[in-house]
Amino acid sequence: MSGARSAILERMRASLGGVASGDARRAAVETRIARHARNLVPKRGQLEPRARQALFVEMAEKAAASVERVASASDVPAAAAAFLARHNLPPKLKLAPDAAVAGLPWERHPLVKIETGIAAPDDRASLTPAFAAIAETGTLMLVSGPTRPTTLNFLPENHIVLLRASQIVGAYEDGWDRLRAEAGSGWPRTVNFITGPSRSADIEQQLQMGAHGPKRLHIILVADDGDGKT
Predict the structure, then answer these.
(1) Rounded distance between C-alpha atoms, residue 140 and residue 118, angstroms
(2) Kind of pairing between the strands at 139-143 and 125-129
(3) pLDDT value for 13
(4) Given strand 92-95, what is the order of strands in its sheet?
(5) Measuring CA to CA, how many Å separate 77 from each of 43, 96, 98?
(6) For residue 96, what is the DSSP state?
(7) pLDDT (tens digit, 9 = 90+) per residue, 42-62?
(8) pTM higher than 0.90, yes or no?
(9) CB within 8 A of 124, min separation 6: which ones?
C-alpha cells in the first residue's frame, strides 16, 4: 500500500474513532457485528400479525406483484397451474428442489410438466419458497442453497413464490433476526431481497418490465399457524 493511501486511511479511521492496531480493529468490528444493533423501525413495521399480512399484500401489489391467497400448501399446485393458464404460458414449471415446493401434490395436475433444478434459458416459469417477507415494503427475502438455486429467482420471465403467512415479518431487522436464529453457522451464500418484478425506465424514461429479471412476480400466500385467510 502506498504511503499516501495509508495516510488517508489512517485519517479516516481517526475521524471515525478507530484504533491503529489491526487486532483491535478486528475485535471492534466483531463486537459491532455481534451486537446486531437495530435501526429505527417505522410504526408500520411494528404491526400485529394480521395487520402485518395485510400491509405486505398492499405493498407487494403496489410494487406490481400479484398476490393470491390459499388455505393450505396443498392448494399451491392448483394456484400455480391457474397462473400458467391465465397468462397463456406453457404448462411447464421449474421448481426449486426443496421439499417446501417439490413435495407438494403435483400429481393432481398431470398436465403440468414439473422439473426441479437450476434454471435453464428456456424455462418460462419457476416456483421457489420464500425464507421471509418484509411487510413495510412488500419485499420477499430469499436465500440460496443446494435446494434453492438463485438462478430460479432471476432467469425465468415468470417467478412464482410460495410464502407462508407466518413468514411475514414487520421490518428488515426482523428478517435478519430470523435468519440468524435459523442459519446458525450455516449461512447462505446469497440473500436476495425482491420487491416486485424487474423493471427499468433507463431508456427514454419508458417503464419496461422484465428488464433485468422476471417480468411477472406472483406470490402464493399460504394461511398457516391458525391465521386462516386474511
Answers:
(1) 20
(2) unpaired
(3) 74
(4) 66-70, 216-222, 158-164, 125-129, 92-95, 113-116
(5) 36, 14, 15
(6) P
(7) 888 889 999 999 999 999 999
(8) no
(9) 89, 90, 92, 156, 157, 158
Assigned C-alpha cell, 85: 393458464
> Do 165 and 52 form a contact (C-beta atoms < 8 A)?
no
Q: In which residue are the cell numbers 385467510 written?
A: 229
What's the sign of the alpha-carbon dihedral 85, 91, 93, 99?
Answer: positive
The single residue listed with the C-alpha cell 436476495 is 192
123-144 CB burial, b ≥16 within 10 A, e <16: bebbbbbbbbbbbbbbbbbbbb
Calpha distance 110→57 (Å, rounded): 30
**Contacts of residue 69, Cβ cutoff 8 Å, sequence gap at least 6:** 221, 223, 229, 230
Mean pLDDT of the chain: 88
* 111-136 confidence digits (pLDDT tens): 999 999 999 999 999 999 999 999 99
16-30, 73-87, 184-198: which has the highest mean pLDDT? 73-87
In the chain the first and final C-alpha atoms are separated, in Å, by 58
